[in-house]
Specification:
By secondary structure, this protein is α+β, with helices and mostly antiparallel strands. Helices cover 31% and strands 24% of the residues.
Length: 409
């Protein structure tokens, strides 16, 4: 389906009523930005999704606790990079709580923001205690502005090579309403989120329970459909804050006609950020798009798409521009979704290689040529129903191995 949103260069401060910023406090040896925050200048509703890894980082546990306590009234996000604050025991929990406290006690917090109103997030090396003297000072020194999103996104980057930001607008009640966001992630990216952080904002007014439902669906179709290396991290988090600064009318609760436009805008921003992560996979040279059609259900289509996008053999074949369709068929077969091998159809770059489960006559050089660009499109047809899905990934390169063989050294 065509994307209804025109390209729009924006970020988490594109919606009205949000401030953001980033700074350097010395958590990274590189002295690059490593602390940031986003805050709504007015009361807001919130929602979040977190990693399903049983080893959850302290900020994940604390943010989940804050969300449960308030039922979804968070209006600020405080975060750091350079240290994941994961596998750090009770001290890690105390440090994550201290991050929220330091923000509330500092000059960047609007009047009335309490600790439970703050989400916290961290990304970086696992198993190393936070230096709270440095981080606390960094939080206290943050300068938040209405156009500070570009500073905030750089403060969340680790091995990312480019900042990731997106925004979309729609019209409701005669007003322009905006959804914006920033994200980081380049490795440990697998279904059910990974070493990624995504912070979304909107100036729509949205009831908290409905906001959680919309976010969960958007994440399932975007961040849960990207695979870089198949590893699930301990810190994966996606937050959304809705403050109603550009809204005229009752908060969205799922019953209004405007809900469709809001859901589309949020889905668009999540999709743009997810694809940016896949394009920026560690060491990647090629972006992989896997479209699956004809599955018995959408869930089955997602299983097949993720299996193909995450197959190391397929990723290696893409690196070498080798149209070895057997690797794609193999991944579809072990995906866990029902398939009929005799109905299987596979195409690469629009060139059909397999029909009814067997190879058709095709030019090997022509097929290889369609894999030599920076974007490789794989299509799998199952011919079992109407379920369809898209997953995104990248090739597997020697640079990925190099980057992850000396991450802490």
């Amino acid at each position: 389906m065509a994307d209804p949103f025109a390209p729009f260069s924006g970020d988490c401060t594109s919606p009205a009523g949000f401030l953001a910023g980033g700074g350097t406090c010395g958590l990274k040896a590189s002295n690059r930005p490593d602390v940031g925050a986003i805050v709504s200048t007015r009361p807001a509703t919130s929602a979040a999704t977190f990693t399903t890894n049983l080893v959850k980082a302290a900020p994940v546990l604390v943010s989940r606790e804050h969300l449960q306590v308030t039922g979804g009234t968070q209006r600020a996000i405080v975060f750091n990079s350079g240290n994941a604050n994961a596998a750090t025991g009770t001290q890690g929990i105390a440090d994550a709580r201290q991050m929220a406290f330091r923000f509330c006690d500092g000059p960047g917090a609007p009047h009335g923001v309490i600790v439970d109103d703050v989400f916290v997030a961290s990304t970086g090396v696992i198993g190393v205690p936070l230096n709270m003297d440095r981080l606390g000072a960094g939080i206290a020194n943050l300068h938040l502005t209405a156009d500070g999103g570009h500073h905030a996104v750089r403060a969340m980057m680790t091995t990312d090579t480019v900042p990731k930001a997106a925004a979309a607008t729609f019209t409701a009640h005669g007003r322009t309403v905006t959804v914006g966001g920033i994200a980081k992630g380049a490795a440990m990216i697998a279904p059910h989120m990974a070493t990624m952080l995504a912070f979304l904002t909107t100036d729509a007014a949205v009831e908290a329970r409905y906001l959680q439902s919309v976010l969960t669906r958007a994440v399932d179709a975007s961040f849960n459909m990207i695979i870089i290396d198949g590893d699930m991290s301990t810190n994966d988090t996606c937050f959304v804050i809705a403050n109603g600064a550009s809204w005229d009318g009752a908060p969205l609760d799922g019953s209004q006609a405007e809900c469709a436009a809001f859901e589309a805008a949020l889905g668009h921003v999540c999709g743009e950020l997810a694809r940016a992560m896949a394009r920026d996979g560690e060491g990647a040279t090629k972006f992989i798009i896997v479209d699956v059609a004809g599955a018995a259900t959408v869930a089955d289509a997602r299983r097949v798409a993720r299996a193909v996008a995450g197959s190391n053999l397929t990723k290696a074949a893409v690196l070498g521009a080798d149209p070895n369709w057997g690797r794609i068929a193999c991944a579809a077969g072990y995906s866990g979704a029902p398939i009929d091998p005799n109905r299987l159809e596979i195409a690469i770059g629009g060139l059909t290689l397999v029909r009814d489960g067997v190879a058709v006559r095709y030019d090997l050089d022509a097929a290889s040529a369609r894999m030599k660009g920076t974007e490789v499109h794989i299509r799998v047809g199952l011919h079992l129903g109407d379920g369809s899905a898209t997953a995104w990934g990248c090739d597997l390169t020697p640079d990925y191995v190099r980057l992850n063989s000396d991450y802490t050294t």
